[in-house]
Amino acid sequence: MASLRPWRLLSLYISAIAAVLRFIATILRRASAAPSHILRCPIIVTLIDHCLSLYFLSLGLSPTTVELDGDTTVHFWASAHRRFSRPDLVLVHGFGGNSRLQFLRLAGPLSRSFNLYVPDLLFFGKSHTLRHDRSERFQARCVVEGLKRLGVGRYTVFGISYGGYVAYRMAEMWPEMVERVAIASCGIGCTENQKTEHLGNLGRNVTEIFLPENPENLRRLINLTLYKFDPFRWAPDFFLQRLIDRGAMCKYYKKERLELLEHLLAQKADPDIPIPTQETMLIWGDKDNVFPPLLAFQLQRHFGPKAKLEILKDTGHASNIDSPDRLNELIKSFALGCSNS
Questions:
Q1: What is the overall mean pLDDT for the chain?
Q2: Which of 322, 46, 333, 35 lies closest to 160, judged by CA?
Q3: Euclidean distance between CA atoms 137 and 311, whole angstroms
Protein backbone atom coordinates (compact mmCIF):
# COMPACT_ATOMS: atom_id res chain seq x y z
CA MET A 1 0.00 0.00 0.00
CA ALA A 2 2.87 2.34 0.74
CA SER A 3 4.02 2.09 -2.88
CA LEU A 4 0.69 3.54 -4.02
CA ARG A 5 1.08 6.70 -1.96
CA PRO A 6 3.37 8.58 -4.42
CA TRP A 7 0.96 7.87 -7.26
CA ARG A 8 -1.98 9.11 -5.19
CA LEU A 9 -0.06 12.29 -4.40
CA LEU A 10 0.79 12.74 -8.06
CA SER A 11 -2.83 12.22 -9.02
CA LEU A 12 -3.83 14.80 -6.43
CA TYR A 13 -1.33 17.31 -7.84
CA ILE A 14 -2.55 16.81 -11.40
CA SER A 15 -6.18 17.12 -10.33
CA ALA A 16 -5.38 20.30 -8.45
CA ILE A 17 -3.60 21.76 -11.48
CA ALA A 18 -6.55 20.96 -13.73
CA ALA A 19 -8.99 22.51 -11.26
CA VAL A 20 -6.97 25.69 -10.93
CA LEU A 21 -6.56 26.03 -14.70
CA ARG A 22 -10.32 25.58 -15.17
CA PHE A 23 -10.86 28.22 -12.50
CA ILE A 24 -8.51 30.65 -14.25
CA ALA A 25 -10.18 30.01 -17.62
CA THR A 26 -13.58 30.73 -16.07
CA ILE A 27 -12.31 33.98 -14.61
CA LEU A 28 -10.93 35.13 -17.96
CA ARG A 29 -14.17 34.29 -19.78
CA ARG A 30 -16.13 36.32 -17.24
CA ALA A 31 -13.61 39.15 -17.14
CA SER A 32 -16.02 41.82 -18.23
CA ALA A 33 -18.45 41.00 -15.41
CA ALA A 34 -16.01 40.09 -12.64
CA PRO A 35 -15.07 42.56 -9.90
CA SER A 36 -11.89 44.27 -11.02
CA HIS A 37 -10.13 43.88 -7.66
CA ILE A 38 -10.21 40.08 -8.06
CA LEU A 39 -8.52 40.10 -11.45
CA ARG A 40 -6.03 42.77 -10.49
CA CYS A 41 -4.75 40.54 -7.72
CA PRO A 42 -1.32 39.14 -8.65
CA ILE A 43 -2.23 35.75 -7.17
CA ILE A 44 -3.65 34.64 -10.54
CA VAL A 45 -0.30 35.01 -12.28
CA THR A 46 1.38 33.33 -9.30
CA LEU A 47 -1.07 30.43 -9.54
CA ILE A 48 -0.28 29.98 -13.22
CA ASP A 49 3.43 29.92 -12.43
CA HIS A 50 2.96 27.31 -9.71
CA CYS A 51 0.73 25.23 -11.97
CA LEU A 52 3.43 25.18 -14.65
CA SER A 53 5.99 24.02 -12.09
CA LEU A 54 3.68 21.33 -10.72
CA TYR A 55 3.00 20.07 -14.22
CA PHE A 56 6.71 19.77 -15.02
CA LEU A 57 7.25 17.97 -11.71
CA SER A 58 4.44 15.56 -12.59
CA LEU A 59 6.36 14.67 -15.78
CA GLY A 60 9.33 13.50 -13.73
CA LEU A 61 11.32 16.68 -14.37
CA SER A 62 13.20 18.33 -11.55
CA PRO A 63 14.34 21.97 -11.22
CA THR A 64 18.14 22.01 -11.13
CA THR A 65 20.46 24.98 -10.74
CA VAL A 66 24.03 24.66 -12.02
CA GLU A 67 26.69 27.10 -10.82
CA LEU A 68 29.18 27.34 -13.68
CA ASP A 69 31.45 29.75 -11.85
CA GLY A 70 31.14 32.67 -9.48
CA ASP A 71 29.48 34.75 -12.21
CA THR A 72 27.10 32.45 -14.08
CA THR A 73 24.17 30.25 -13.05
CA VAL A 74 22.09 28.14 -15.44
CA HIS A 75 18.74 26.67 -14.44
CA PHE A 76 17.40 23.45 -15.98
CA TRP A 77 14.29 21.34 -15.80
CA ALA A 78 15.90 17.92 -16.09
CA SER A 79 14.76 14.30 -15.93
CA ALA A 80 14.90 13.40 -12.25
CA HIS A 81 15.54 9.71 -12.93
CA ARG A 82 17.70 9.32 -16.00
CA ARG A 83 17.11 6.12 -17.95
CA PHE A 84 20.13 5.01 -19.93
CA SER A 85 17.86 3.10 -22.31
CA ARG A 86 16.50 6.45 -23.50
CA PRO A 87 18.33 9.05 -25.61
CA ASP A 88 18.93 12.54 -24.24
CA LEU A 89 17.05 15.51 -25.71
CA VAL A 90 17.66 19.20 -25.05
CA LEU A 91 14.97 21.83 -25.75
CA VAL A 92 16.13 25.46 -26.13
CA HIS A 93 13.47 28.18 -25.96
CA GLY A 94 13.28 31.57 -27.69
CA PHE A 95 12.25 35.05 -26.63
CA GLY A 96 8.78 35.51 -25.19
CA GLY A 97 8.85 33.75 -21.84
CA ASN A 98 10.75 31.05 -20.02
CA SER A 99 11.21 27.39 -20.88
CA ARG A 100 8.14 26.10 -19.00
CA LEU A 101 5.73 28.36 -20.84
CA GLN A 102 7.19 27.77 -24.29
CA PHE A 103 7.48 23.99 -23.98
CA LEU A 104 4.26 23.38 -22.07
CA ARG A 105 2.78 21.36 -24.96
CA LEU A 106 6.03 19.57 -25.85
CA ALA A 107 7.45 18.46 -22.51
CA GLY A 108 4.73 15.92 -21.71
CA PRO A 109 4.85 13.76 -24.86
CA LEU A 110 8.63 14.03 -25.25
CA SER A 111 9.34 13.14 -21.62
CA ARG A 112 7.86 9.69 -22.29
CA SER A 113 10.54 8.89 -24.88
CA PHE A 114 13.61 10.86 -23.80
CA ASN A 115 15.70 11.99 -20.89
CA LEU A 116 14.66 15.62 -21.16
CA TYR A 117 16.79 18.69 -20.39
CA VAL A 118 15.14 22.09 -20.67
CA PRO A 119 17.41 25.05 -19.81
CA ASP A 120 16.41 28.61 -19.14
CA LEU A 121 18.69 30.74 -21.28
CA LEU A 122 20.58 33.53 -19.52
CA PHE A 123 18.24 36.28 -18.26
CA PHE A 124 15.19 34.08 -18.73
CA GLY A 125 13.69 32.22 -15.80
CA LYS A 126 16.33 31.65 -13.14
CA SER A 127 19.47 31.75 -15.30
CA HIS A 128 21.76 34.76 -15.06
CA THR A 129 25.34 35.96 -15.33
CA LEU A 130 27.48 38.90 -14.25
CA ARG A 131 29.51 38.66 -17.45
CA HIS A 132 28.89 41.13 -20.28
CA ASP A 133 28.96 38.70 -23.20
CA ARG A 134 25.53 38.77 -24.90
CA SER A 135 26.32 36.51 -27.85
CA GLU A 136 24.54 33.31 -28.81
CA ARG A 137 27.93 31.59 -28.57
CA PHE A 138 28.11 32.44 -24.88
CA GLN A 139 24.54 31.21 -24.37
CA ALA A 140 25.50 27.97 -26.14
CA ARG A 141 28.66 27.61 -24.05
CA CYS A 142 26.67 28.00 -20.82
CA VAL A 143 24.06 25.41 -21.84
CA VAL A 144 26.71 22.90 -22.94
CA GLU A 145 28.78 23.42 -19.79
CA GLY A 146 25.65 23.01 -17.67
CA LEU A 147 24.83 19.74 -19.44
CA LYS A 148 28.36 18.50 -18.81
CA ARG A 149 27.96 19.23 -15.11
CA LEU A 150 24.73 17.21 -15.16
CA GLY A 151 26.59 14.26 -16.69
CA VAL A 152 24.93 14.49 -20.11
CA GLY A 153 27.10 13.27 -22.98
CA ARG A 154 25.71 12.88 -26.51
CA TYR A 155 22.30 14.41 -27.20
CA THR A 156 19.93 15.85 -29.76
CA VAL A 157 19.20 19.56 -29.40
CA PHE A 158 16.06 21.36 -30.58
CA GLY A 159 15.94 25.15 -30.64
CA ILE A 160 13.14 27.47 -31.68
CA SER A 161 13.52 31.09 -32.84
CA TYR A 162 16.27 32.68 -30.70
CA GLY A 163 16.85 29.21 -29.29
CA GLY A 164 17.58 28.09 -32.85
CA TYR A 165 20.59 30.40 -32.97
CA VAL A 166 21.82 28.89 -29.70
CA ALA A 167 21.18 25.29 -30.85
CA TYR A 168 23.05 25.93 -34.09
CA ARG A 169 26.07 27.27 -32.17
CA MET A 170 25.97 24.26 -29.86
CA ALA A 171 26.13 21.95 -32.88
CA GLU A 172 28.84 24.00 -34.58
CA MET A 173 31.12 24.33 -31.54
CA TRP A 174 30.60 20.92 -29.90
CA PRO A 175 30.01 18.34 -32.68
CA GLU A 176 31.35 15.62 -30.38
CA MET A 177 28.43 16.23 -27.99
CA VAL A 178 25.56 17.22 -30.30
CA GLU A 179 24.46 14.15 -32.23
CA ARG A 180 21.62 15.82 -34.13
CA VAL A 181 20.28 19.36 -34.31
CA ALA A 182 16.73 20.52 -35.07
CA ILE A 183 16.09 24.22 -35.72
CA ALA A 184 12.67 25.83 -35.95
CA SER A 185 11.85 29.26 -37.36
CA CYS A 186 15.26 30.87 -37.03
CA GLY A 187 16.99 33.68 -38.93
CA ILE A 188 20.44 32.15 -39.33
CA GLY A 189 21.88 32.21 -42.83
CA CYS A 190 19.95 35.17 -44.20
CA THR A 191 21.61 37.95 -46.21
CA GLU A 192 22.01 41.53 -45.01
CA ASN A 193 19.39 42.71 -47.51
CA GLN A 194 16.93 40.06 -46.34
CA LYS A 195 17.54 41.03 -42.73
CA THR A 196 16.87 44.70 -43.49
CA GLU A 197 13.73 43.84 -45.46
CA HIS A 198 12.31 41.56 -42.75
CA LEU A 199 12.93 44.10 -40.00
CA GLY A 200 11.23 46.76 -42.09
CA ASN A 201 8.20 44.54 -42.66
CA LEU A 202 7.58 44.34 -38.91
CA GLY A 203 6.41 47.93 -39.08
CA ARG A 204 7.80 49.20 -35.79
CA ASN A 205 10.70 48.95 -33.34
CA VAL A 206 11.57 45.28 -32.99
CA THR A 207 12.53 45.61 -29.34
CA GLU A 208 9.09 47.04 -28.50
CA ILE A 209 7.46 43.94 -29.96
CA PHE A 210 9.73 41.22 -28.61
CA LEU A 211 10.20 42.89 -25.23
CA PRO A 212 6.69 44.25 -24.63
CA GLU A 213 6.09 46.59 -21.73
CA ASN A 214 2.37 47.06 -22.22
CA PRO A 215 -0.66 44.98 -23.29
CA GLU A 216 -0.80 46.59 -26.74
CA ASN A 217 2.69 45.42 -27.68
CA LEU A 218 2.11 42.00 -26.09
CA ARG A 219 -0.95 41.56 -28.30
CA ARG A 220 1.16 42.64 -31.30
CA LEU A 221 3.73 39.98 -30.41
CA ILE A 222 1.02 37.32 -30.17
CA ASN A 223 -0.56 38.34 -33.47
CA LEU A 224 2.85 38.33 -35.15
CA THR A 225 3.96 34.90 -33.94
CA LEU A 226 0.70 32.91 -33.85
CA TYR A 227 -1.56 32.02 -36.76
CA LYS A 228 -4.26 29.66 -35.51
CA PHE A 229 -5.50 31.29 -32.34
CA ASP A 230 -4.83 33.92 -29.70
CA PRO A 231 -4.68 32.37 -26.19
CA PHE A 232 -5.15 35.80 -24.61
CA ARG A 233 -7.94 37.01 -26.85
CA TRP A 234 -10.39 37.39 -23.98
CA ALA A 235 -7.84 38.40 -21.36
CA PRO A 236 -8.30 41.95 -20.05
CA ASP A 237 -5.44 44.40 -20.38
CA PHE A 238 -4.73 44.54 -16.66
CA PHE A 239 -4.23 40.76 -16.60
CA LEU A 240 -1.74 41.03 -19.47
CA GLN A 241 0.04 43.83 -17.65
CA ARG A 242 0.36 41.56 -14.62
CA LEU A 243 1.78 38.88 -16.89
CA ILE A 244 4.36 41.35 -18.18
CA ASP A 245 5.24 42.67 -14.73
CA ARG A 246 5.21 39.47 -12.70
CA GLY A 247 4.81 36.48 -14.99
CA ALA A 248 6.84 34.67 -17.64
CA MET A 249 7.60 37.93 -19.47
CA CYS A 250 8.43 39.87 -16.31
CA LYS A 251 10.63 42.94 -16.28
CA TYR A 252 13.43 41.28 -14.33
CA TYR A 253 16.61 41.41 -16.42
CA LYS A 254 14.84 43.57 -19.00
CA LYS A 255 18.01 45.58 -19.63
CA GLU A 256 20.01 42.41 -20.20
CA ARG A 257 17.37 40.92 -22.50
CA LEU A 258 17.38 44.13 -24.49
CA GLU A 259 21.16 43.78 -24.83
CA LEU A 260 20.72 40.19 -26.08
CA LEU A 261 18.27 41.36 -28.74
CA GLU A 262 20.39 44.36 -29.72
CA HIS A 263 23.44 42.12 -30.12
CA LEU A 264 21.47 39.76 -32.36
CA LEU A 265 20.21 42.66 -34.51
CA ALA A 266 23.58 44.40 -34.71
CA GLN A 267 25.69 41.50 -35.92
CA LYS A 268 26.26 41.28 -39.65
CA ALA A 269 24.16 38.73 -41.49
CA ASP A 270 26.19 35.78 -42.79
CA PRO A 271 24.65 33.65 -45.57
CA ASP A 272 27.79 31.46 -45.63
CA ILE A 273 27.65 30.17 -42.06
CA PRO A 274 29.49 26.89 -41.33
CA ILE A 275 27.55 23.79 -42.33
CA PRO A 276 26.76 21.45 -39.43
CA THR A 277 28.41 18.05 -39.62
CA GLN A 278 25.41 16.47 -37.90
CA GLU A 279 22.08 15.42 -39.34
CA THR A 280 19.93 18.54 -39.31
CA MET A 281 16.21 19.14 -39.39
CA LEU A 282 14.67 22.51 -40.22
CA ILE A 283 11.06 23.07 -39.15
CA TRP A 284 9.07 26.07 -40.37
CA GLY A 285 5.49 27.27 -40.30
CA ASP A 286 4.11 28.17 -43.72
CA LYS A 287 2.55 31.30 -42.17
CA ASP A 288 5.68 32.48 -40.34
CA ASN A 289 5.65 36.29 -40.37
CA VAL A 290 8.93 36.68 -38.46
CA PHE A 291 11.21 34.51 -40.62
CA PRO A 292 9.36 33.70 -43.87
CA PRO A 293 9.58 30.12 -45.26
CA LEU A 294 11.80 31.43 -48.08
CA LEU A 295 14.63 31.51 -45.51
CA ALA A 296 14.00 27.86 -44.65
CA PHE A 297 14.46 26.70 -48.26
CA GLN A 298 17.52 28.91 -48.61
CA LEU A 299 19.05 27.47 -45.43
CA GLN A 300 18.32 23.91 -46.50
CA ARG A 301 20.11 24.45 -49.81
CA HIS A 302 23.11 25.89 -47.97
CA PHE A 303 23.29 23.06 -45.42
CA GLY A 304 23.11 20.42 -48.14
CA PRO A 305 21.98 16.76 -48.17
CA LYS A 306 22.24 16.22 -44.40
CA ALA A 307 19.51 18.81 -43.81
CA LYS A 308 15.83 17.94 -44.08
CA LEU A 309 13.09 20.57 -44.19
CA GLU A 310 9.58 20.16 -42.81
CA ILE A 311 6.98 22.86 -43.53
CA LEU A 312 4.03 22.88 -41.13
CA LYS A 313 0.72 23.83 -42.72
CA ASP A 314 -1.35 26.66 -41.24
CA THR A 315 1.36 27.38 -38.68
CA GLY A 316 2.97 30.66 -37.68
CA HIS A 317 6.32 31.47 -36.11
CA ALA A 318 5.47 29.78 -32.81
CA SER A 319 5.01 26.22 -34.03
CA ASN A 320 5.30 25.04 -30.41
CA ILE A 321 1.92 26.68 -29.79
CA ASP A 322 0.25 26.54 -33.22
CA SER A 323 1.10 22.91 -34.07
CA PRO A 324 2.50 21.20 -30.97
CA ASP A 325 1.31 17.68 -31.87
CA ARG A 326 2.96 17.66 -35.28
CA LEU A 327 6.07 19.31 -33.85
CA ASN A 328 6.30 16.61 -31.18
CA GLU A 329 6.06 13.91 -33.85
CA LEU A 330 8.84 15.49 -35.91
CA ILE A 331 11.19 16.00 -32.97
CA LYS A 332 10.60 12.48 -31.67
CA SER A 333 11.12 10.70 -34.99
CA PHE A 334 14.18 12.82 -35.82
CA ALA A 335 15.85 12.36 -32.42
CA LEU A 336 15.19 8.61 -32.51
CA GLY A 337 16.63 8.37 -36.01
CA CYS A 338 13.34 7.26 -37.58
CA SER A 339 11.66 8.28 -40.82
CA ASN A 340 9.60 11.48 -40.58
CA SER A 341 7.15 10.52 -43.28
A1: 86
A2: 322
A3: 27
